[in-house]
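Batch job 17 of 40 flagged for manual review because the log was empty.
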Amino acid sequence: MIESRRPMIRYTGNLTTQLQTELALEVMEPRRLYDYSTSDAITYEPRRAPDFIGTLKYNMNPGFVKVAGIYRNIGYGSKGSYKSANGYGVSAMTTIFAGVEKKNNLQLQWNIGKGISDYLLSMGGSGFDGNADREDPAKLSLLPMHSGYASYQHYWTPKFHTLLIGSYNRFDGENNTFNESGTWNTMQNLYFGGNMMFDVVPSLTVGAEFLWGKKTLEYANDEKKSAPASRINFGFMYNF
């Protein structure tokens, strides 16, 4: 995938032959933080502090287990002055290779925190890091959330492989305001999909993918609204 580069300073150290740690400072500027805010009292302000990240990784043979933590200080303008809100996140993940010649790859991950949707690929920074507080519209309230995914990849031949994946994310918006979908208390997104990939040559891969998703909103009056969506993707990837 083509992704933007973000400024980062990172230290990687080996504690033992199997245990590795990372410490990093990363500048992740919220991309669409205020899209859904109903408050004119909140304005965008550039970040004044980077994200602080720490990880601990245990290498198995084969595969690994990794835990990570993040602290974020997200800035905003309110009533003519600079303010900030504190976010955090904790993540646990594992990758396990199994079978003859490592033809099977199982990945699991689970995350919990608030103000960290920028780091979720499925959300893409879609305005769910934070929002105006319901009680005080001049205050930025970061959204608590949890998410997870599981994927299974199998190599049928050295060139042909398939992937199945399922994931979810759930946001608690009880203290926040939203003007596009009403004032919801919780939002849950489910995703399921699979793809087939073929390596034409070592540097060129072609494939097809099917994705299905469902969004569910729960409101303060116990009303629920949900809608599914699906799509098919075709593409190729060339590794220069």
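Reviewer: the log was empty due to a logging misconfiguration, but the result itself is present. The chain is about 0% helix and 65% strand. Unflagging and moving on to job 18.
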